[in-house]
# Entry
Amino acid sequence: MTSARPGAPAGRTVAIVLAAGLGTRMKSRTPKVLHRLCGRPMIEYVLDAADAATGSRPIVVYSPATGAVRDAVAGRAEAALQDEPLGTGDALRAALQALPAEAEEVLVLSGDVPLVKADLLEALLEARALDHAAMSLVAVDALDPTGLGRVVRNEGGTVERIVEDKDASEEERQLTEINAGLYALDASWLRRRIGDLTPSAATGELYLTDLVAMAREDGRLVAALEVEDDGRLTGINDRSQLARAEWDMRVELNDRWMKAGVTMVDPSTVYLDHDVTLAEDVILEPGVVLRGTTSVGAGSRIATGTQIHDSVIGERCVVWASVLEGATVDDDVTIGPFSHLRRGAHVGSRSEIGNFAEIKNSTLGEHVRQHHMSYLGDADVGADTNVGAGSITANYDGVNKHHTTIGEGVFLGVDTMLRAPITLGAGSKTGAGAVVTKDVPAGKLAVGVPARIREIRPIAPTPPADPTEPAAEDPAG
# Structure
């Protein structure tokens, strides 16, 4: 990754992400910043933007109530504990304990603003650098500033202070320019002044925003980066705001994939997670849900009513009204309607999986045909095998799971039951309704209950009709 400003060494700017609040308005036991948007915790998007803007490992501030946040970000961020919820100023103080000594600049973000983009953060850092300011902030002329901190300027337009809504006078509440909660600060100045914050008379909290007035007292500038109120910088505090953010993110995600060559018949009904990948000429019909790390190969069609989770779909496949979870599907496969591929299912190329077919922890070779109401669990199925309607592998004895091995070119008659562990050799067959409890040698037939082994009798071909014979008379006239 590169730093926000060309030539700036990585590590000189460090992002601090405030995530100590539980988010009581979410009415959830899950910390607010771990609620998911397009398949990822919202804080992951904030960390993405911080990484891209700074090129340094960020610091995430958590509290005893949000210990799950520390665990969730352990792989990509440092963690700093705020012992008590004493406000944003106290959270920043806690983060400074983990700030590297060589850090010269601090970027402060909120973990509940997942729509923030790296280019905005880079512009914020640049604004501070251009004015050699003690700090810079993002200011928004809000359509509805209710409940938000107001930016107070002097007659010359210089930012003098920020007043929180709870502490504002009636005159100050008439201001519409609000603080968006994004800051860049001179690290050495911040280290010197953070201990001078005093509790608010209204709430008893330490406000990070009081640093603005302190900078002005020190004769330092506070730069304001003014942006439009497009809703992207609004923090997520409840479930309705979470839903709106999901919608905004999904519209953006779908638009990006359509520009990359994916057809969506009705984008408003297509649900994609952030980590889904799609190749060119994929077609997504209405009512499709793709979750997790799912990938879909070129030319495949995912038809109406399909849900796919953490699965790999090859090229030129068709999946219709089916559910796939942790499955792998090779090229030129058709699936559905109403099939269920569970974790560990691997379907070979040119195979056909039809209605009410279920596969679990099984590998199917090329051109396997499993068309109707059947179950394959804990099995290896050879190429060119036909699975008759109603056939199952009875893989569970009440205590343990057992494996079934089916060779190439096997023909399973309708309603075949294979009691695992069992092996069927290549080219073997079962009769309709057979209950197979013993291995079937290659090229043999198993019939009956329990099944007995027989030789396979060749089926005499039906002779072609003699064109010189008159057609049979239709008794119905």
User: Anything to note?
Assistant: The chain is about 15% helix and 30% strand. The domain at 239-455 is CATH 2.160.10.10 (UDP N-Acetylglucosamine Acyltransferase; domain 1). The two ends are 82 Å apart (CA to CA).
